[in-house]
Amino acid sequence: MIKCGVKRMERIQKIIAQSGLTSRRKAEQMILDKRVKVNGQTVTELGTKVSAKDKVEVDGVPLDREEPVYFLLYKPTGVISSVKDDKDRKVVTDFLSEVKQRVFPVGRLDYDTSGAIILTNDGELANKLMHPKFQIDKEYVAKIKGIPDKRHLNILRKGVRLEDGVTSPAEVKIMSADRKKNTSIIHLTIHEGRNRQVRRMFKALGYDVVKLKRERYGFLNLKGMNPGDIRELKPHEVKQLYKTAVT
């Protein structure tokens, strides 16, 4: 397992955030509100550091402090981006059945979309990566019905009006087109994470998505991986993710 999580001594607000309980900023407010204890003593200083041996409590409840782990999954289609499903469908965490830590997906990929998705138990990193202000690039390859003209490509590049607002500008490129079958393969890079966003963007312009794959999340790609494959991120990759989502 990667040893890139809790160090020998860490600021207590970071430890609380990494547990997934809340964000670091809210953790700091909890400390100021005298809701945090270390080894039975109330902590009020934000600079307080703790080790793995210290007992941390928030509102009287011991903090669950697992060793942080980080994975990249090539999610196949027909899999739910969740830790459980009320319809008993396969979920992304089923691919990590041997992992003791309670990991969860960072963001979502649609049931019928394949591709790169991060799984971790590091709540602080997950919150950073999913926050809109950090604008993490996500690169998709879409097979669609139809061949977009220059006007529609420009709309995608400038922003598509959807029911929940205009999308941010996207990078778009037609990779190939089959005029006989009236289909095309499109590379699309966005940094937002709205529900079924790519499919809705094309639908708004009159194109149905036949197949969709997320090839890249930030700097992480699927090179050498097949659907269902999962790999543990290397320490330098975890550090780079934190740098990508710097406050």
UniProtKB/TrEMBL annotation:
Q: Name one Pfam family in it.
A: S4
Which key words are in the record? Answer: Isomerase, RNA-binding
Superkingdom of origin organism? Bacteria
Question: Which SMART domains does the UniProt record give?
Answer: S4
Q: Which residues form a coiled coil?
A: none
User: Is Transmembrane helix there in the keyword field?
Assistant: no
State its Enzyme Commission number(s).
Answer: 5.4.99.-
Q: Which residues form the RNA-binding S4 domain?
A: 10-67
Q: Which GO terms describe its molecular function?
A: RNA binding; rRNA pseudouridine synthase activity
GO BP term, example = enzyme-directed rRNA pseudouridine synthesis
- List the GO terms this entry assigns under cellular component, sorted alphabetically: cytosol
Q: Which NCBIfam families does the annotation name?
A: pseudouridine synthase
The UniProt entry's sequence similarity note says: Belongs to the pseudouridine synthase RsuA family.
What's the protein name? Answer: Pseudouridine synthase
Which species does this protein come from?
Scopulibacillus darangshiensis
